[in-house]
Known about the structure:
Layout: H1 2-11, E1 14-17, E2 23-26, E3 34-37, H2 40-56, H3 78-85, E4 91-94, E5 100-101, E6 109-112, E7 116-120, H4 123-128, E8 133-134, E9 139-140, E10 152-153
Parallel strand pairs: 4-6
Antiparallel strand pairs: 1-2, 2-3, 5-9, 6-7, 7-10, 8-9
Amino acid sequence: MLSQYIARKMARTKFKILGDGTYFGEVPGFRGVWANANTLEECRKELQEVLERVDFAQGEIEGTDLCPEIKIMRRLTGEILNDIYRLGARQARYREDGKWYHPLTKFPALFFDAYGYIEFKTKDAYQKCSYLQLGQDGNVIDNGISAIPGYVSLNPPPCKYKP
Length: 163
């Protein structure tokens, strides 16, 4: 399962050629995970090795039915949960209490809390949601996202995977 997770992350890797002709690659959702090499293949290989070290850096895998690899992640993110639950959103955010999130810019999008999520299929649905107090620097939800109609409880819940 961990190798499948790493393969999905590698499929989203961004590469570019730098001014000196070397290749630079980074994995969205993993700050500080990057590689630089003389060829694209070397860069890809180095990046996968770095990603594997990041994933394993937190210790042993403890079994769960859905996703054992999340036990060893450094930080739970909306992007990781979107991948694990295979929801297919273009953007996802996570806050344990479900009361404050960075703004969404790509749709469909998700807000996760410790027990589930709410989906915004379009920008219009997001902007018209009366439960959100939209701001340039963040969104406030006084009673949390679980109070929004359409909230989906997840089993097992995201909080079960908290590192």
